[in-house]
Amino acid sequence: MPEPEEQAEELLKDGSDICQQLMDRYARSSAPQHRHLLATAAAMRSILASESLSLTPPAYFAAAIDTAASNSDTLDSTAAAALLSFLSVVLPLVPAQEISAEKAGEAVSVLVNLVGKERGSDGGLAVATVKAVVKCLGILLGFCDLENWDSLKLGFQTLLDFSIDRRPKVRRCAQDCLVKAFKSFKSSGVNKAASKLVLSMLKNNMPLAVKLSSLKAVDGSKDDALSKPEHLEVLYMLSVVKISVPSLSTKVSSKVISEIVKLLNSKFSVLTRHVFQVVEAFFETSRVEVTVPETEKIVDSLVSYVSSGDKNPVDTDISAATLLKRALDILHDKESSLWIRNLPLVCGCLAGLLSSEASIASLASSILKELLSHLADYKTLLTDKDKPSDDEGQESMEASAIKSVCLIFENALATYSGTPDEHILGVITVLFLNLGEISYVFMKSIVLKLADLMILANGGTSNTDHLRKCIGSAVIAMGPERILTLLPISLHADLTCLNIWLIPILKDYVVEASLGYYIENVVPLAKSFERASRKVKKLATSQDLQAHAHDLWGLLPSFCCHPTDTYQNVGALAEILITFLKEDSFMHKNIAIALQVLVYQNKNVLSPKTESAEPNSFAEKDCVLQFRNVPTYSKKIATKNIKALASCSTELLQALTNLFVDSLPEKRSYLKDAIGCLASITDSSITKMILLSLFERFQFVDGEGEFEKLGSDNQAMIDKEQGNLSSTEKEIQR
């Protein structure tokens, strides 16, 4: 059954007498506390009636307080409990402003005196009664002078004392009232004085707290370390500090966090979780300037804890990792030099968690990804002198930190016997993408290690999706030219192929490369494989070499995805493409797609609202360009690119048109879109000329350019052709 004070909100809803409502509610109850409560209520009503006072909550409150004050020496525990219970019912019903600050202060003194005597007696008060007193004290503080500390000190101190009470209901009620009291204070002086009381409580408990923080708990249990009541009070005290943090004055906050840092230990103790919660409370406040001076100390302590090598409880490792992220977020926002200086330290300890159980590894991976995403802000500060060297004195702080971070993950990769999992590979992927081109300076060894892992994995059954994606991110960051410098694709004299596994990755991840590089390096390499395939006698080997050559040629659409030198080299590329278009070649579809990509990615810059049919597989690549420092193309560059494409579009368009006419229906779908795309940038007189020549070829016009009457066979052929062309979009998407 709920305690009487918990029914207060249901009382006096119709303005009825409190005493009468209590009678109606508990008259049939045989519980002793209810009988005593009704007797007290009747006595209070009798007092009011004898003095001809109205039966209102303020009048009942005044009568009860006067009774408690005048009879404090003679009240036994039963009578005191009933009187206090009655007060807890009445007081919440007293309207604001109905009790003066002076009377509220006197009432606080009466209650503190009464509960103090009962706490010292043998019998003592029941938990519900003490909770009722605490609740009354919390309410009475709201009636006191909220700008006068002398009016508030006794009540606040008493709430603070009860906030570490061993009885859970009493303790929680006192802590709730404490938080409300802090929020109600209207003077910085009052807030400062209240904050000092919290700090005093913390300091008084620090010797014992430091001792407990050094005691290692067994398997995360409390063991015997908290068997003594004073030991439990340390935990309760930390809870009070945690809930008080948002309200503490700035000066006191700084002193409190300085004390709390002393309790951070490299080993798990009975206090670890509570200390972490207090630190978290500080990080969650908006007053970051308080925590910055101590943040590095917190980082050092948390790193020591995570890296201790002990088997810490999972939840504490998760808390420590989360706190490390928040600590570095504070440094990044306020002291960027401290952020970059501490980054390797934090990355080192969190990298150790990547091989932990799934929940911890996943969290560590997410935190590391978010931390490393900030590196994009620092790479622009690096210069040529920042390249890694043996002379560490010549490196900037940024270069030294990035070098250390890369070495951490290089060493972490070395600990894996098989294919690394998604957690570490995901982190390295983010590192590549955020360092961009300078990853070639700092991450060469990681690329070589990933290549070794890929070669080993190709000979087994392990899933290489995450490994491929990681190497792909290196292709995006460094560019294919640098990747192929580190991992050259080549054909040896004995016909063994080196790094052929890289070709499918290049196909998926090349972006913002050079057409000139494709022409000068990839094309000759593909031709060398073709020549070798023709010379070798063994059919299987010949077919393999021919397939590799086709794969290299097939990199064309990828190299056409936002190339950096379109207007400089598209003419030379067109000559190669036209040669293929005039032959029965495997390259027709690749060329059709590549031309569309080249045209539409430039047209979209000049007319972004135009709906284009850029192939989906390449439109999706645009998302990786967010890691670049500048937009892919400016309107000036896009204009130059379109002009260069238009200058060689006539021959391309003519070759595509001829190929379209001579091709089987299943090939015409992708050719049709390539023709339409090139026609959109070609002079209309040229497209008209090509169209007329096509009509003449099919005898749709006579020699003088006049349309002839279409026969039924011709019309049927055209209708059939239109049906074949309707599937173009599906083909392109495939």
TrEMBL record:
Q: Which branch of life, at top level?
A: Eukaryota
Q: Which SUPFAM superfamilies match?
A: ARM repeat
Taking every annotated instance into account, which residue ranges of this chain make up the domain RRP12 HEAT? 355-661
Which Pfam family is an annotated match for this chain, by its short name? HEAT_RRP12_N
Domain RRP12 N-terminal HEAT residues, every copy: 5-290
The protein's name is: RRP12-like protein
Q: Source species, please?
A: Quercus lobata (Valley oak)
